[in-house]
Amino acid sequence: MLERPAYSSPDIPPIEQTFLFNFLSEITAYRTSKLDTHPERDIVSKHLNVLLDYLQAEYKPLETRLQSLLNDNEITYDLLWTTFKPNHHLRRYGRSSMCQMQLRRRREAH
User: What is the residue extent of each domain of the chain?
Assistant: First the structure.
């Protein structure tokens, strides 16, 4: 899995190792749909391809495990973070202490 870089800069906040996993589908969609209109599409395309190739390879074991669980309508506590984007809010309805949520299924990365 991704690790925190050995260097640290006070001007650049570190990115949580799991943060980009939650946005992988959006980055992929941007590459395939909106990149054509970007004024510097050649260089941006190269950078996005490198980033996506790396992320897809790095997250492949996680994605495989997650898909296996979601196919059975299950999730484990340690993977619960994969079902929500950062700052996602849950609402509790009624008096029950249990939250009902609908898991969004992730597309397999290709």
Answer: 17-110
| Crossing angle of helices 24-33 and 41-71, rounded to 10° | 140
Query: Phi, psi at residue 9, to the nearest 5°?
Result: -125, 135
Spatial distance between the Cα atoms of 46 and 27, rounded to a whole number of angstroms: 13
The separation between the first and the last C-alpha atoms of the chain, rounded to the nearest angstrom, is: 19
d(CA 66, CA 7): 31
Place of tokens 């190269």: 46
pLDDT tens across 14-70, in order? 777 788 898 888 888 888 887 777 788 788 888 888 999 999 999 999 999 999 999
> What is the pTM (predicted TM-score) of this model?
0.63
* Buried b or exposed e, range 22-48, using 16+ CB within 10 angstroms: bebeeebeeeeeeeeeeeeeeeeeeeb
